Amino acid sequence: MHLKRLEISGFKSFAQKTILDFAGGITAIVGPNGCGKSNIVDAIKWVMGEQSMKSVRGKKGEDLIFSGSKKRVRLGKARVALFMDNSSGAAPIDFPEVVISRNIFRAGENEYHINNSKVRLKDVADILTKARMAQKSFSIINQGMADAILNYSPTERQLILEEAAGVRGYQVKKEEAARKIKNTKDNLEKTASLMAEIEPHLNYLRKQASKAEKREEIVKKLGDIQKSYFGVISKNLYKEKNQINRRNKSARDEIFRKSQELIELKKNLSKEEKNMFSGDNGIFGLQQKWNDLRMKIGEMEKETAKIEAKIELILIAREPQVSPVDIDYIKTRISQSLELLKKALNSQNAGEKNKILNEGLEMLDCLHNEIKNGKIKKYLKKPEVNPGLLEEKKELEDKIAKLSSESREIQANIANRQGQELKEKAKFFEMERRIKAIEDEIGGDKDVLRDLDIEEAKVSMKLGDIEKEIADSGMNIQEIIAADIKIPELFNQDDSEREIRRLKVRLDEIGSIDQATIQEFHETDQRYQFLEKESGDLKKTISSLKNVIDELERKIRENFNDYFSVINNEFNNYFRLIFGGGRASLLRKTAVNQVDGDNDETGGNDKENDNINREGVDISAILPGKKIKDLSLFSGGERSLTSIALLFAIIASASPPFLVLDEIDAALDEDNSQKFGKILRELSRKTQFILITHNRETMKLADILYGVTMDEGVSRVLSLRLV
Fold first, then answer.
1. Quick one: pLDDT band at residue 633, thresholds 50, 70, 90?
2. CB-based burial label for 711 (10 Å; 0-12, 13-18, 19+)
3. What's the half-sphere exposure (Cβ side, CA atoms, 13 Å) at 325?
4. Which of 384, 273, 267 is nearest to 321 (CA)?
5. Smaller CB count within 10 Å for the chain: N or C?
6. How far, in Å, CA of 283 to CA of 425, rounded?
7. What's the topology of domain 1-139+659-722?
8. Are 578 and 644 in contact, with CB atoms under 8 Å apart?
9. Domains of the chain: which residue ranges?
């Protein structure tokens, strides 16, 4: 992977868009001091993610944007794009060309793009690191850095070699893991402190919660028993009340029905009384007729007496042979009949009156038949009897017959009226008896109704007490009634009441628990469990990070050991080549950088767990014909050549994709410049070089030569392809 092109627009002195194309091999950029050559190096650093303004020779982001000149206005934005050939697939992106660009605005906002897609700085760093072109790597070297490598501490020198060896990423991860361990242990300590602070109060709250839980169990058990108890009792009471209400309604309906019947009977009784009164009036009418009949009978008696007298006189005078006994017989029979009729009229007893009347009428009929049939007629056949008297006798007979007929009619009417009167009286008395019986029944029903009302009141009172108990227990009577509660076969009301009393006593013993305390327990316990889990997670994290560090150290050790052997050999070779002899080597040493000196249950007493073993590299060099090993005693030229020898050793052993060398050959004389150029040409077979130089010998090596000039504060680039 190598650089293909660099586009600069508005960055520092490059006001207009400037393009530099790179080829494999060596590209040299030349120009007078102050023309902007180093701005190209700064542009490459910056687009690769440099965050230090000092590294790009600025104080703030605005300093990187073209600030204007006499003929050009200042710009509001700077942009740099770096085009890289990815045909080898070194960068983890599925494109043959990778374009990384970075924009900055006057407001200080930065934008990063990869192939025109907006990304984060981290994404840019990841791609460059995996392509061995990281901004922090040994890819851009200026003269100061080349000289400084000899003055670096062993640890700093180790970092440079790790970058060159490609294990810097491992080392960064290791250091990051070590920092995470330290931070994790700090967090673990804080977590343990919080847990220790919470635990005593949590224990108190847990006891309260346990009491509350026990209370809740009792409350639930009490509720279940009460629900069953109240359900059974209330349902039985409601059932009993409904039965009483049905009986009450039935009794009231019966009283109402009987009352209606009583009213109707009393109406009928009143009618019967009227009918009886009417019947009495009928009998009174018949009695009037009897009175009339009696008057007629009296008149008939007088006439009969006259006739009898006349007949008697005639019989005595003209027929002495007629026996007085016969006349007396007739008189006696007539008198008896009349007496019977009088007695019947005077009798108060209807049956007796009817009987006597019948006897009198029968006697009259008999006498009439005797007279008519001749028993007495023989006494009246005498021609001497006056016809007028006979006529009168006949009239008497007719009157007697008529009187008999009327008597029979009166007899029939009286008998009929008496029969009706007996029936009406019997009916009247039956109605009176029925009324009395119904009144007695109504009285009995009212007594039953009063008893039912008393029973209903007692049941309602019991229901009221039960409903109050249900309400006091926090239950709903309707829900209990609606619930499908099955009565247990072994349900015992007394046992249930005793158990309810016992559970209530237990609740009183436990007392009330503040719900806020329970809420506090749940919150505190949840917090404690969270801390406990976090503590466990932190311990696992520490253990995992230690495993990561062990694995990274193994990889660093293996890779760096291989690389160190190679670079050590290369350093000696290039040193001998440049100096024409002598000997140079790199020496490894160990320095301990403390990360966390505190021991705890996660780290034990193993100090290796609390410190990073940071290795360092020293330089040992002996010039030809000399025994001096101390680099501080080397001359400036000797130090410069030694640093270049080390630089070439790094390049030769690591073969980075590209290197930007900013005037590192400035102090070389012509002879050493030629040696420098020869070595550079050899290394360019594997590494792309971009050189900022004033050295003519170096310029001769360039495949592409760019010249930079400045006109009125604006840098311009001229190109010359030499091969």
1. confident
2. exposed
3. 2
4. 384
5. C
6. 14
7. Rossmann fold (3.40.50)
8. yes
9. 1-139+659-722, 323-376
